[in-house]
Amino acid sequence: MATTALAMLDQKLLPSPAATAGFGGSDRLSQEIFSILESKFLFGGVAPPDLGACSAGRVRVLSIDGGADGGALAAAALVRLERRLQELSGNPDARVVDFFDLAAGSGAGGFLAAALFARRMPADAARDVVVKNRKVLSGRGGGGLFFRRPEAAFKKVFGDLTVRDAAKPLLIPCYDMASAAPFVFSRADAVEADAFDFPLWQVCAAACGVGPAEVASLDGRTRLRAAAAAGGGGASAAVANPTAVAVTHVLHNKREFPFASGAGDLVVLSLGGNAGSAALRPSSSSLLRIAGACQADMVDQAVSMAFGESRATNYIRIQGNGIAPGETAEAALTERGVESVLFRGKKLMPQTNGERLDGVAEQLVREHHRRLESKTPVVLVKPSATPRTSSSSASTLITVSTNSSDDSP
To answer: What is the pTM assigned to this prediction?
Structure first.
């Protein structure tokens, strides 16, 4: 097998020494070798699709992790981002949703994505909800005002809103116990039919692993049993980082994103959680947190590799590297950013998380102004009143449970 692998890397495929100069030397070489092997496997030696950016503009994607911190770091990052967007755009009423084309969130990130995109909630108001209900959003059961019925926190925020009511594409993954498979709540599917539309408060409760055991669509045809949190973020451990879900949705949903053909056509902001200090005593909850963190980092590394050299500008990952007890989530924004590197673990970046968020805000505002002057729409969002018969997830991820639950509202 080793001989075969070496044979694949013949002289015409190997990068020249000049190509590796000035770009980290062996790091550049390792990445190019990995890319060559991957291309061989995926495309049979044929050149992979062109990843150059299209002239129409870039699709702006917001991805928010669940995280064992209950979304605290992501919420703080969104507050800073929104304030910076307001300053740069000159519009004090600007919201995060105005500068993104799609949001994906798992666990607490699902709540934040839904609050911003369906309620048009200001980022600081969403952060306040996260702070007051941190135990619920981290999947650790009740707390505060909602101890007996933790899902009441979501019902109070969303009321009768459903997935279809999101202003822009929205994706919230969870884990369905009935089919032992992931399930993605999608606005694209919800617009298509009531069988794919769900109350948002139930969706967020399912993503965090609290609330009703069974979640049913508006017409009752689609049902799933959400995984319980199991004492600390277990519900979102299987889909902790939804970035890959978001990128795949954009690249395969040509109705809404007609010009997105590769990584170069996207700008992705991925908000992670804070690693914190792991529990020294082994327990089911600590192992679940480790599993979730591992999944998030693996997705981060894979997506980063897909963006290649454009990852410095087109893919921005914000995550904490552990905050000392007693410090706030805002403290992580003053720390240097952390990057997950293939085969190398994590390394500190020269910029702080806050500085990187400011850079993203500048990109988003430039893209916003460019679109105002362009006659070519980058995104064609389906209106909720016009169903269609095409979806990127309905044919593969919709599962139906024949079992019912007495806890279903």
So the answer is: 0.78
